[in-house]
Amino acid sequence: MPESPRHPATPSPRHAAKLFVAAALARSYARVAWLFRSRSWMIQETVLPVLAVAAFAYSYQAMLDPRSNPEVAAQYTGLVVLGAAMTTFWLNVLWGMGAALYWERDSGNLELFVMSPAPMMGVLTGMALGGMTTTFVRATVIATAGVLLFDVPVNPTSWPLLGLVFFLTLTALYGLGMMFASVFLRWGREAWHLVNLLQEPVYLLTGTNFPVSAIFPKAVAAAATLIPLTAGMDAMRQVLFRTPGIFGVWEEVAALAVLSVIFLFTARWLLARLERRAREEGKLTVRWQ
Questions:
Q1: Rounded to the nearest 10 degrees, what angle do helices 159-187 and 100-107 cross at?
Q2: How far apart are CA 70 and CA 65, in angstroms?
Q3: What is the tens place of the pLDDT at every residue in 46-103?
Q4: How far is CA 108 from the centre of its chain?
Q5: Residue 20 maps to a domain
Q6: Hey, what long-range contacts does 247-251 have (CB within 8 A, 24 or more apart)?
Q7: 158 within a domain of the structure (yes/no)
Q8: How far is CA 256 from CA 167, 170, 228, in A?
Q9: CB 101 within 8 A of CB 181
Q10: Whole-model pTM above 0.70?
Q11: Which residue segment(s) compose the domain that 110 sits in?
Q12: In Å, what is the CA distance from 223 to each residue of 147, 206, 250?
């Protein structure tokens, strides 16, 4: 029996891959272009966080006395600088990824995304890449200013290992952001409250300004590593400043890799369900639903 022809509405794998890449690049372009067109906003987004870093850094230096404990004071100051730099990615995941589709629906763009042949996963990947790029610039400025102002030593045990931890942390974080995008869109107007709810508690659980392993019991610290930012910062602090961690570096690398796979596949599954609901019921793109 001759092979049945391919359905005209079903793109070939090669064409689907092209659509995915084109959608990702097109959606990321808008966010990267903003970096060069809103320079005053970028100054605000980088200078003010440096002031917050300075407050915690001076507090640690006042308590630890750099003249008698220079290494310990430098380590704790480095923890604060790294925490401030990585927190910018968490804020971008919440506001730039989690609430993104909700805002796109209110602006009328979500209907175009759903009806276009481009996959929604490609659209979200573009949002993630664009947000990652702009936030990386902001985080680099904060980290560089903190290192230069407070003389933080930067001597990792392994640069490739540090790069691997950073890459896996961002992959898991933005995979979680893609999940948030679907969940927040489904819950409608509660998305705004959920974003605010997940902002401050995470600062505590991830140890933005202190080492989690030194404050929380082992069970609480281990549970906190389900948040990618916790495991990522803990591993990077071990590599950069040789501080004790919740687990070993490679154990946390493995945990980040597993979280990345779980979050990305779950985000894809949730998006598929939302797209099917949008096409069958026609309610998902209606404002205030």
A1: 50
A2: 7
A3: 777 777 788 887 877 777 766 666 677 777 788 888 888 888 898 888 877 877 777 7
A4: 25
A5: no
A6: 247/222, 249/161, 249/165
A7: yes
A8: 10, 9, 6
A9: yes
A10: yes
A11: 37-281
A12: 31, 11, 17
